[in-house]
Amino acid sequence: MKVLLLGSGGREHAIAWKISQSQKLTKLYIAPGNAGTALCGENVNLEADDFDSLAAFIRSNSIDMLVVGPEDPLVKGVIEYFQSKPEFSSLLLIGPGKAGADLEGSKEYAKEFMNRHNIPTAGYLSVTSENLSEGYQFLDSVQSPYVLKADGLAAGKGVLILDSLEEAKAELKAMLDGKFGAASKKVVIEEFLSGIEMSAFVITDGITYKILPEAKDYKRIGEGDTGLNTGGMGCVSPVPFADKEFLAKVEQEVIKPTVDGLLKDNIPYTGFIFFGLMNLNGQPKVIEYNVRMGDPETEVIMPRLKTDLLEVFEAAAKKELDKVSVEIDEQACVTVMLVSGGYPGGYPKGIEIKGLDKTEGSIIFHAGTKPDGDKVLTNGGRVISVSSLGNTFNEALKVSYQNAEIIDFEGKYFRSDIGFDLQKYL
Question: pTM for this structure?
């Protein structure tokens, strides 16, 4: 089977790494990919949202399956683009259409979906410039801290959590005035949920689903969860505080009603669903949906997946997911993200990365990298994800940190406390 995978980050390297192990694979292409994906297949210099160029490539290379890694092309309608062309009727597609992708593309749409299908989530109000006064009243009615979310995609930067009521009102106005561009022309104000965050994941064919390992990531740049939010500084799986009882509630109260809700609403859906969850004293509440795998969550989930991923994709695309079983490795996996100096603010690119060939016992996933002859250079804020499996959580943690020290580039930074807050649950 010939496969084209769209994307260029750590998530895509982890997916490419897993696909490359499949007995069903004849050729893997990644567009545009990075220095790591080049080790798993062939990088193609095409952008994930350049649909016409992708179509030409798929046509000329007899591609059998298209796997969409990031959310942006999904929200822009890449699935409908190929479904609308009879010549691609046999192309297997992994990713939801626009209606499904709007679960991530619009916070309001997601909230309305959750309320319609009785899926537990925080109270909220959608605000535009027309009902700004209602937004102020809603802020007056809830307790600090105040949560403001840009309705549309804002590259992970459209969420503000503020302690001051005055600041919340000022930021609400600024967002509606275009602080995050078109993404914040509508803002969802949410009640703040106080608990412990984690994420659950499934792959679905829109009828049935298979549950993947759960994970917990670390968003803040600084030790002890301080400083600015990032795309993720590290991740662990399984999650020590998510016991069987809690995960059973997640399936019954969140996962099953979501997949059933898609079916009831006549929303075809093939691909991953990411559930951002809050554990409130043993009760799950949904913070958000993502319509693709997370990053760096994929870097701890794929190493724990023992089943052939391409086999699972094929079954999902053919609406035969009930015919496959998904086997999970019982080992723990921990990933530590190495980032560029200055991230999540401004940072340099093009710095040589050394020591990649000196690591032992970890899987090295590339995020913001690019090949330059025999060298590998930095090409983003989050550069390298160091993932390790271990019989115990702490064993995996130790190996990841040993290799995080070995890999080196000027300005390298990583958090040295990933997973430390979970020791009390072990």
Answer: 0.94
